[in-house]
């Protein structure tokens, strides 16, 4: 772990923010704190952090909107904090592009473990430096860009990561649980149906059904990215 890695905590409860700062600095991270959503966005743009811990229920601008604004700018890793155990909050955060979530109250050591797990996953994407190129489709995971017939299409990070993962392993069938583990992590305990939601949105955006490839549902099992043998 680089001791120069900077983490931005956006949390309105000073006790929680201070506790996280204490544990993170012991791990060798540099820490910046903001106590509301507006300040969080300001610190984000000023400090250019390497990682963000983001509370959902924030004064001024809430965590959902902060996450949206950050994702428009770049793909910095984000862990969201929620005081609720509802799967809706978890799924919404992940669909907005968060990399993981932690439910309050939590053990700071769990947050540290999740940060390290997210860094391992996101680092693997950066190191891969691969581009999927097929007729009518190009996916660049490094720049998080996708092009359909030469036209750039905007996909949220998790949708793009899911499509990229399937496209890099053509004609291989994956169960929903396998996809959850690969894209959301082994400790994700939300509903597997989030995979179905993501696949539906991907199909709508990329105009699925090319004669060269298709994102196919395998009834009762899961999904595969099917590539025509002539490609």
UniProtKB/TrEMBL annotation:
Entry GO CC: cytosol; protein-DNA complex
Q: What is this protein called?
A: DNA-binding response regulator, OmpR family, contains REC and winged-helix (WHTH) domain
Instruction: Enumerate the CDD domains for this protein.
Output: trans_reg_C
Chain residues forming the annotated DNA-binding region: 129-227
Compartment(s) where it occurs, according to its Swiss-Prot or TrEMBL record = Cytoplasm
Species of origin: Evansella caseinilytica
Q: Could you list this entry's UniProt keywords, alphabetically sorted.
A: DNA-binding, Phosphoprotein, Transcription, Transcription regulation, Two-component regulatory system
Q: Which domain of life is it from?
A: Bacteria
What are the coiled-coil residue ranges? none
What molecular functions are annotated in GO for this chain? phosphorelay response regulator activity; transcription cis-regulatory region binding
Tell me which residues make up the Response regulatory domain. 6-119
One GO biological-process annotation of the entry reads: regulation of DNA-templated transcription
